[in-house]
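Q&A log
Question type: sequence-to-structure
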Amino acid sequence: MDSVIGFWGEPTATNWCERNYDVTHYIAEFFNTISSLCMVSAGIFGIYKHSKGFEPRYSICFASIIVVGIGSILFHGTLLFSLQLFDEVPMMFCVLMLFYSVFENQKEKKFGKWFPIGLTIWGLLITTIMILSGKDHEDRMMQLIEFYVFQGTFVVMAVCVYIHTLSIVFNPNVEKGVRKLWFLGSVVFLIGYIGWHIDLHFCSRMHQLPYNPQLHAWWHFTASYGSYLICVLVTYNGSKVLGKNPSLRWILNVLPYIELPEPSSLTEKSAIYVNEKIEKVTNYGTIIRKNGEMDKRVNAINN
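Response status: OK
Response body:
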């Protein structure tokens, strides 16, 4: 652990391999903090491209990436345990939201209203355990319990989401670009995750190098990109199931987004015309029926 004390005082959170306050007195881990802006940018772009015509759940998925990025900035910028939770808790709820979106993607609810309620309760339970176990942040054992409770929950849920995406990409009717999307996301995540482990477990050797490669900061970049890709994949699948005819588009062949067909003005006019005709026929039928009833009453009186 780095012994340098900066603006935010002695670190109480998980301390990564970047030297503390090495760039500025006001930011504990400069590169880890700045790289977290990638998450904010990815989430904003995702909402911008996938709000109109898409289900709100997908905007929530992209918004959760933004929240994770903001929490990561607070965590790495201060290295305070209370702000570490602002990084870890949103990460967990982000993967829970993805879990819900990939498994509950039909027009009719497969698991009912208790599925999202159950996931929310589970998330709150894990959050409570994390807070209680990390309350005594000076106790190394309790700090490890908090860290691995979070990591265990996050990894299990993420693996479940990843396995489900296999059924999407290996569907024979899926667009070719969707397989590229999945493969690219998988490779990027794997590279970043390997770097994350090296930064965590081989920090002393990293400091022997002429320059620290800042692998945890690179993890932020790969996690941002990979999270964006998985959200795009989930958005594509959900829109496809709902019959919205989504198309996968690429910017510079590296940044994908989903595009929905614009409703034809002719189709809209036709629908309005048909609805007007139906309304007229319905009103005409009502008038005829009332006139018929009136004739029956007149005949009954005459008889």
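Response note: The mean pLDDT is 83.
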